[in-house]
Amino acid sequence: MAVTSQNSTSKASKIQLFSISSPQMRAFHLTWMAFFVCFFAWFACAPLMPVIKGQLGLTIEQIANINIAAVAVTILVRLIIGPMCDRFGPRKTYTGLLLIGAIPVIGVGFSQSYESFLFFRLCIGAVGASFVITQYHTSVMFAPNVVGTANAATAGWGNAGGGVAQGLMPLLLAAMLMLGVGDYLGWRVALLVPGLLMLVMAALYWHFTQDCPQGNFDELRAAGITIDSGKKGGWASFRAASANYRVWMLFVTYGACFGVEIFIHNIAAIYYVDHFGLSLKSAGIAAASFGLLALFARALGGIISDKVALRGGLNRRATLLFVMMLGEGLGLLWFAHAGSVTLAVVAMLCFGLFTHMACGATYALVPFIDRKALGGVAGIIGAGGNVGAVLAGFLMKGLGNTQQTLSMLGVLVTVSALCAIAVRFTATDKSDEPALTVPANNIPA
């Protein structure tokens, strides 16, 4: 990522990776950090489920319900959070989500029954909407020539929080046990950590970010300055986005890539324990490797998308997404039929690479669908990821077998790749493509 100077009141045309001097780069770094903390909190329970299962006496069906609950409410919140960004600005929206989301994250450690655990797990799902705010904030801060890279990098590094949770939470539990804390309290104390991190992150986000390069939305509106991304604020943004067929095509593709990612986060550790007989620690490390791919793979998808767009236009972005979806589907089928733990891990890393890159390539397209209804577009497509995860959860509940579920998902992902091909841009859409290469100070915010 190149280093260059940039106008602090314009969208950034380069990513100054090692700088926080501009509002654009402060937003870049704090969005991925906030997203990382939210993802860490969202999936902190997953690697501890083998322990929690025994503590609370959970059945297979109850675990399936918990996994569904963990992603179900995010659908609704993601639909709401996008228009909220248009209306209130990403700074206020993100700070509020972090503060409110910390309540159930801390509360889950106090669960005494299946019902209370299910309730808190359902509420924790709301923090998954942090993804939409992250993508929104970088989209209004960075110019079209690097927005795909900025979106994919912040989302990928934030997504890594799920992988870190898979590996770190069992270690936190082990540390609690070594300090003399019993099994009953160990996992509960460990789950307090992500909630406290969310509170710290809320304070940092409020104090060090602003809504767009020119300032905060409320101040700009008070001064009579029109905000391009917020012209269709609130539900008008949602209605405009929902009328665009390309939004629903990407809704499906994102459900097939990010939905699968969430599903794997929720079941990977327990799958390795039950199917291959690994220990909790080994299963956590294996599952963590999938999530940690997000450190570079999602960014790679966005970078490649930006590169092919410069050479071949917007439609090349959609074609690239189609190829990545095919790779994900075929790799998932391989993972489902792996006969040993070694092959399973290798297959998981292969299909995981395509999965994360497909996520990055999807959101590299988002800023070009409807720039004046960005919040609605980001929210609907983001919700598609959770719809995919919920449907995968119901599929597993219906089949009653994780391996069969993975096989079926592989087929469905491969077929859904056709939706990427259906995303095409008109001559009018392409007329804006010269903006891909103009200097940042010539691009309206």
TrEMBL record:
<feature type="transmembrane region" description="Helical">
    <location>
        <begin position="157"/>
        <end position="179"/>
    </location>
</feature>
<feature type="transmembrane region" description="Helical">
    <location>
        <begin position="185"/>
        <end position="206"/>
    </location>
</feature>
<comment type="similarity">
    <text>Belongs to the major facilitator superfamily. Nitrate/nitrite porter (TC 2.A.1.8) family.</text>
</comment>
<dbReference type="InterPro" id="IPR020846">
    <property type="entry name" value="MFS_dom"/>
</dbReference>
<feature type="transmembrane region" description="Helical">
    <location>
        <begin position="93"/>
        <end position="111"/>
    </location>
</feature>
<feature type="transmembrane region" description="Helical">
    <location>
        <begin position="247"/>
        <end position="272"/>
    </location>
</feature>
<protein>
    <submittedName>
        <fullName>MFS transporter</fullName>
    </submittedName>
</protein>
<feature type="transmembrane region" description="Helical">
    <location>
        <begin position="278"/>
        <end position="297"/>
    </location>
</feature>
<dbReference type="InterPro" id="IPR011701">
    <property type="entry name" value="MFS"/>
</dbReference>
<feature type="domain" description="Major facilitator superfamily (MFS) profile">
    <location>
        <begin position="27"/>
        <end position="428"/>
    </location>
</feature>
<dbReference type="InterPro" id="IPR036259">
    <property type="entry name" value="MFS_trans_sf"/>
</dbReference>
<feature type="transmembrane region" description="Helical">
    <location>
        <begin position="64"/>
        <end position="81"/>
    </location>
</feature>
<feature type="transmembrane region" description="Helical">
    <location>
        <begin position="318"/>
        <end position="337"/>
    </location>
</feature>
<feature type="transmembrane region" description="Helical">
    <location>
        <begin position="373"/>
        <end position="396"/>
    </location>
</feature>
<feature type="transmembrane region" description="Helical">
    <location>
        <begin position="408"/>
        <end position="427"/>
    </location>
</feature>
<feature type="transmembrane region" description="Helical">
    <location>
        <begin position="30"/>
        <end position="52"/>
    </location>
</feature>
<keyword id="KW-0534">Nitrate assimilation</keyword>
<keyword id="KW-0812">Transmembrane</keyword>
<feature type="transmembrane region" description="Helical">
    <location>
        <begin position="117"/>
        <end position="136"/>
    </location>
</feature>
<dbReference type="InterPro" id="IPR044772">
    <property type="entry name" value="NO3_transporter"/>
</dbReference>
<feature type="transmembrane region" description="Helical">
    <location>
        <begin position="343"/>
        <end position="366"/>
    </location>
</feature>
<keyword id="KW-1133">Transmembrane helix</keyword>
<keyword id="KW-0472">Membrane</keyword>
<dbReference type="Pfam" id="PF07690">
    <property type="entry name" value="MFS_1"/>
</dbReference>
